[in-house]
Structure formats: C-alpha cells, structure tokens
Amino acid sequence: MLQLSSPEEKCQQLLEPPYDEMVAAHLRCTFAVSNHDFVEAYKCQTVVVQSFLKAFQAHKEENWALPIMFAATLDLRIFANNAEQQLQSKGKGKVGDMLEKAAEQLMSCFRVCASDNRAGIDDSKKWGMLFLINQLFKIYFKINKLHLCKPLIRAIDSSNLKDDYSTAQRVTYKYYVGRKAMFDSDFKQAEEYLAFSFTHCHRSCQRNKRLILIYLLPVKMLLGHMPTHQLLKKYDLMQFADVTKAVSEGNLLLLNEALVKHETFFIRCGIFLILEKLKIITYRNLFKKVYHLLKTHQLPLDAFLVALKMMKVEDVDIDEVQCILANLIYMGHIKGYISHQHQKLVVSKQNPFPPLSSVS
Amino acid sequence: MNETAMSVGWHQSRRGRGHRHKEQGRANREQVVEQKAEDSVPHGTCMTMCPAYELRQREAQNRLHRFEMVAGTERDRLPSADVSRAVKEYSRPAAGKDSTRASDLRPPSVLLKTVCHLVDEIAASSTSQPWTEVYSFVFDRLRSVRQDMIIQRVSGPDCVAVLEKSVRFLLYASYRLCGQQLQYFDPRINDTHLQECLSWLLESYRDGKHQHQEEFQALSLLYNLGSSQANTHVLELPERIRSSPAVQLALAVSRAHMERNPVRLLRLAQRLDFIQVCAVHRHLLPCRTDLLLLYSHGHSSRNCRYPLQRLARLLFLKDALAVQLCQVCGVNVTEEWVNFSKSSFTDTPSGDLQCRRMHEPLDDERWNCSAGSVIHGCV
C-alpha cells in the first residue's frame, strides 16, 4: 500500500522538508514503476535526488547518508535508461537526452562530495566520489561522449583516497579508464588498467570478468601476447580463437575471414577497429616466417609478395609490399632498410624482428 | 542487489553514430529554437524566396546583394529588388527579435525551390562575379534556409533534399576555393557548417528509405577520414547500405588510411568520382607527406637511390610537383633520383606547398559547367 499516486499530503504531515518531498517523490516513483511508466518514474526520481541533495548538503561533517545517495543515483540512471528505451520504441525522444540530464544531476552530487574539505577522513563525503564517477562513466560511454571522462579521471588521480576505495569500485573504475585508454590508442596504459580490473574482479562475477576480457584481449594481442585456448573456452569467447590463431601464424587470410565471421559481435563491442590494427602484427609475423625460411639477411622483395599471394591477398603488388615493409620499419617492427635498386629488404644481422612487447 | 547497468543496456551501444558532429549541430540548433511548447511549432506562410517585409526593408536601406538586383539598376543610388531573385538572408537570433512570424518563414516546398534557385541560377551559372562572391552569397542564403527549417522543425524528404544539396555545395566549395585567402573562404567555418549538415542529414536517414543515402554515407566517411567515430557509424549501418559500391569504396579508402598504406590509398582515390574527391581531398596532401615519411625510414640508406619518376607515379603527381613536395619535406632529390634518409625528413615543412597545387587543373568555364550537376547530384 505504499504505491500511492499523490502522497504529498501524508508526507508533509509526517516529515520535515526536504525529506517530505523526497519520500513523496519516492512513493510516486514506486507507483509509476508498478505501472511500467518509466518516463514518469524518471521524473519522480530526479525529485528524489534533488531533495536528497538538499538534505545531504546540510549534513555538516557527516557522511552516513552515502548509501542513500548510491541507491538514489543508481536508480536515477537506470530509470533514465529505461525511459529512453520506452520513448525510442514509440519513436519519440532524442537518444541520449535523458541520460545527459541524469548525468548533470550526478555531477551536482559529485560536486558536493568532492568539495567536502572540512570533515575528517572517516566522515568525509569524498568516499562517495568513485561510485558517482563510475555511474557517470557508464553514461558517458553510452552516449559516446568519452571526452567528458577526462576531468573525472583527473579528480581521482589527484585524490589521496584513490587506492582506498572498495575493490569493487576500483575494478569498475579501471575497466572504464582502460577502455578509454584503448579509445585513445594508449595500449600500454590500457593493458595496465584492464589487467588490474581482470585480476581483482571477484571470481564469482563471471559476466564481468568476460566483459573485461573482451577489451583486454585485443590490447594484449596488439602487444604480442596471445590468449590460450583454455582461457577463451572458459569465458565463452571463442570468437577470438580464429583471430588469435591467424595473428600468431601470420595468416592474413584467416584473419580477414575471422573478422568477417564475427563482425557483428566485434562491432557491437566496439573493438572491430582495434582488431583491424592486428593486421600490421600479422604482416610482421608473416614476414618473420619468410625471414626464417630464407635464412639470409638480404631478402628479395618478391619473396614477400609470394607469401602474401599465398595468403590470398590478391590485389597487392611490389609497390604495396614496399609500403607495408616501410611501415613496419618505421614502427620498429623490422630493423633494416629497403633497397629498391636491388629489390631487396636488407635486415639487421642482430634481432631484425624485435619482440612485439618491446616495440612501443 | 545493485544490478549493474553494464548488463542492462550495454548491447545498445550507440558508438560512433556521428555523435561528435551531432554535438556541435545540436548546440547550434538549440540556440536557434526558442523555448516553445511542443504543440506551438511555427508553420511558415511566406511563398516567396524572400519575405515581403525584409525585401522592402533591404531595398530601402540599400542592403540588397548584387544577385538580387534588377538587371541594370546595380549602379543606381537605390537599386531595385528583383522579387524573382531576392532570397531571405541569414540573421542571428537575438533577444526581442521574433524569428517565428509565420509570414517570414518559408514552408518546406518553398525552401527546396529556393535551394534549387541558389544552385542553378547562382552557383552553377557563369556570372561575371568571382566565385568567392558566389560562395559567400549562397553560403549565407543556405544558412537562412536551414534556419527556417530548424524553427519549423522540418523533417522528411524536403528536409533531406535541402541538406543533400547543401552538403554537396559545401563540399564542392571546399575543393574549388581551397587555398583562397581567409577573407574570402575560411575552411574552418565551411567545415563547421558541413559537419552540422552532415550530422543532421545522417540523423534524418535513420527513418525511412532515402534514395541517396549510400552516396552520403560514403561522402561522410571520406570527409571524416581517420575518424574512428565516423568509421564505427558506417560499420553499424544496415547490410544493404554498407554493401553498396559507394560505401564499400569509401570503406576501402578508410581501411588503407587506418593501415597506414598511402600507396594503396592514393591508388584507390583514383577511383573516386568528382564529389568524392571534393570530400577527401584535404586528406590527400597529409597522405602524400606520410608516404615520404614512411619511405624516408623504410628506404633510409646512404647508398641507395629510388627512381624519381616511380615516386611521382606513386604520389600521383607530376614530376615537378613531386620534386617540390620532396624538397619541402627535406627529402633529397637529384635529377632522376631520390635519396631517402630518416634523419633528413622534416615534419615541419619549410616553405609552403598548398593542397591546391595538387588539384586537377580546371579553368573557370569548366568549373561552372560541372557545378550544377555536381551539386544537384546528377553527374
């Protein structure tokens, strides 16, 4: 009987402001949710958060209300999601609008937490920062405004609490900054963050571990570390199996086939473009094989052309081979130079194909 | 227990649907649209290209553009307005100014006719005025057309047609006026408007079927070459559109760019049609210098030489231009040979090599002939 459509009066009788407004809105919200009206639920929840924030700000040097803030803001984001989906199915509403507004509210909460300089560490509202940041990350990733993550990352980096938040919160945080680093092509950093997230993620959270792996795998592959078959099987990520095999064998044909076969999955996860970057690694592995086969440090360019043609890379000629080799040399994957006159690739006698992990 | 939203909505990842461009567009649009309730969207009733009130006012204040004057009256103290050629100009929204008077707004059908007039009679006709003047006029009047569309929240086929012609015009202009002095053509301003039109257009494509969608998805990808968001957007398109020849070619160019294979990129670029070249051309000079960079490292050796003619062919430049490009980038050229050295390549080019120099040479007459068909899209 708590699901009332107009509980304001009752609340005003029993509670002091702003709690009366907050509870009334909460009750209206539960009513809306029971009717599956998420647009209305979202509107009510914004009132809940706003009135909560008024109370929260008045708590001087106390942070006991943090769990309420967590619950209220989480619901806000979830309702915003649901509301948008409802509107979309009716063909109305601009995608991302409600989530952006929710983000603005979360930012207000964040500012209250971040500016709590007076309280001692045990009573500080700063303990709420990472949770809110994680919620904001989720929104920014969803609406594809990753650049808005930067100031939040800076805030945490400069905080002295950053290593003391709960493991769960830190795992989530590192997951998102890891993905952001991937987006910024900072693969070494991405590996660091995502690896942390993966190892510290509780073993019972299989779904989350799988999610992290989806992003960790391409990064590790770019750095030359291929996953084992067992790992892929364990986390139901066999889509990566062919990709892994292709890259380590230098098999461009198989790589292209694997990318096409699981295109939908890779695109949906947002890693298709990064996996395409594995092509250069695959070229490197293929050409390394040629080097080992010919056992000379003066390799005829034609040999590479033949190798590519064997991989069914049809529309490539000697000029493109030179370009690919030049790129590999520029990136440090091959130590040597091309002599056009002699139509040869001359490689260093020492370690001409440095290990992938040592190259930027 | 707190269910993480990662599981709730994450499959609806909307990455790369041109959101970056949308951002700018949305901000601009929100400035123009005043806070009106949903059900009081203005509907224009002005059936001429220029509202009567504005026409009288501008004529009286001698603020007509040359292209709007009755022929022969241009040199008069107060030139006469030609009703059949006057076009509503863009005016910045301001406090106290009501931009929503129905008599000042043109309905979608009139807007489309206006755009056709601008393209056929102004942009594509061989006027005696320099094309920079043509650009300035058409740019402004197209902006006003878009403003009318925003205020009236126009959508649908007329909106799409207007945007398509606007995009083609702006792309064409970016190529034709490339290298002009800033006061006549500012590539950054042109780019801002182009991105706004493109993102609006691509958003419009989400509903219903559109005849030219493949063409414009391809143009958007080519114009934004190198942008992972533009790429992801195309990858998420329906199979039917993605597999069209235009989009496939654009994707191939994009792949060559991502794989950093300028030899392949420049070769593929030869297969682009004129408007596609307009879209991609600003990326071609950086692509050529990148080729020189890669070769400077890959062929770096004191004793080896690379034939100049072959290099010029790879760059798709005349020999003389190839030599100039090499010199600007610090690549040593002597007569018929190029000597690559990774230490001599310079990132900060000395001297000035304009993109314009590498365009196909076309005299003014031929420029004007192609303009109409290019912008209307019936090449």
Characteristic terms for this protein:
heterodimer; A: 360 residues; mainly alpha; Arc Repressor Mutant, subunit A; three-stranded antiparallel beta sheet; 3% strand; elongated; B: 379 residues; 17 helices
Rg of chain A, nearest Å? 27 Å
Secondary-structure element order of chain B, N to C: HHHHHHHHHHHHHHEHHEEH
Average of the residue pLDDT scores of chain B: 85
Question: Biggest sheet of chain B: strands, sense, closure?
Answer: 3 strands, antiparallel
Low-pLDDT parts of chain B are 1-24, 30-37
Largest interface: A-B, 47 and 47 residues
Count of runs of 4 or more consecutive helical residues of chain B: 17
Give the oligomer, counting copies of the same chain as homo and different chains as hetero: heterodimer
Q: How many strands in all of chain B?
A: 3
Give the helix/strand class of chain B. Answer: mainly alpha
Protein name (chain B): SAC3 domain-containing protein 1-like
Organism (chain B): Sinocyclocheilus anshuiensis
Domain SAC3/GANP/THP3 conserved (chain B): 49-334
InterPro entries (chain B): SAC3/GANP/THP3, SAC3/GANP/THP3_conserved
Describe the structure.
- The complex is a heterodimer of chains A (360) and B (379).
- Among the domains of chain A are: 1-161; 283-355, Arc Repressor Mutant, subunit A (Orthogonal Bundle), CATH 1.10.10.
- In chain A, 66% of the residues lie in helices and 3% in strands.
- Chain A has 360 residues and is mainly alpha-helical.
- The longest helix of chain A has 24 residues, at 66-89.
- A three-stranded antiparallel β-sheet of chain A has the order 1-3-2.
- Chain A starts with 7 loop residues before the first helix and ends in a 13-residue tail after the last strand.
- The model of chain A has no long low-confidence stretch (mean pLDDT 91).
- In chain A, 42% of the residues are buried.
- Chain B has 379 residues and is an all-alpha fold.
- Among the domains of chain B are: 43-91 and 100-210, no CATH class; 278-367, no CATH class.
- Chain B has 17 helices and three strands.
- Chain B has helices at 5-9, 19-32, 52-60, 108-123, 131-151, 157-176, 187-204, 213-223, 228-235, 239-242, 245-258, 262-269, 274-280, 284-298, 308-315, 319-328, 364-376, and strands spanning 306-307, 332-334, 337-339.
- Chain B has a three-stranded antiparallel β-sheet.
- The longest helix of chain B has 21 residues, at 131-151.
- Chain B is elongated and about 75 Å long.
- Chain B starts with a helix and ends with a helix.
- At the A-B interface, α4, α10, α14, α15 and α18 of A face α1, α9, α12, α14 and β1 of B.
- Chain A: Pfam families: PCI.
- Chain A: It comes from Sinocyclocheilus anshuiensis.
- Chain A: Residues 171-352 form the PCI domain.
- Chain A: This is PCI domain-containing protein 2.
- Chain A: One of its GO terms (biological process) is post-transcriptional tethering of RNA polymerase II gene DNA at nuclear periphery.
- Chain B: Residues 12-23 have a biased composition (Basic residues).
